[in-house]
């Protein structure tokens, strides 16, 4: 057997083709596959970060809005009546509420792409509840009140709305797959 017969032999050509094919795969196809996998992982991470940011923004905006309003009714209630502190709470609320409402709108806009339409609609409803059930009564009571206001009733109602908001925030975390739904069930 000569060198020429080995080189042109069927076995040698097959092995050479396999070697070239292996080099092409490891040099070209594998980097493409790894790049695709990295891209997919990066997209999942970006989506998860966007969901975490939405949840954080919603929780902060909703709870901050409600807490600022609750401060006014709490400081006006019979149990904790403090007119000076209540006036400061009212001024603080008025100073920040316009920015917080803009934050609600931004969060709603983001929620339309990151959550279900039901949850997005529920966030919008929560904003309407805030205005109708908390903001409007607080503003009316503040404007019309001389000595005997309905701060105790307004505060109790606001606390009920706060509980609804907390429930929504938990539901949002579950929908965004940021929390285990079993964490929010009661163990018996």
The chain-level mean pLDDT equals 85
Count helical runs. Answer: 5
Separation, N- and C-terminal Cα atoms: 84 Å
- Number of distinct beta strands: 0
Q: Quick one: biggest sheet?
A: none
Q: In total, how many domains does the architecture comprise?
A: 1
Specify the helix fraction band. Answer: over 70%
Shape: rod-shaped
Low-confidence region ranges: none
- The helix/strand class is mainly alpha
Helix/strand order: HHHHH
CA-based gyration radius? 31 Å
State which percent range the strand residues make up: under 5%
Would you mind describing this structure in some detail?
It is a single chain. With 188 residues, the protein is mainly α. It has one domain. Helices cover 84% and strands 0% of the residues. It has helices spanning 3-7, 10-76, 83-114, 117-144, 151-175. The termini are far apart. The model has no long low-confidence stretch (mean pLDDT 85).
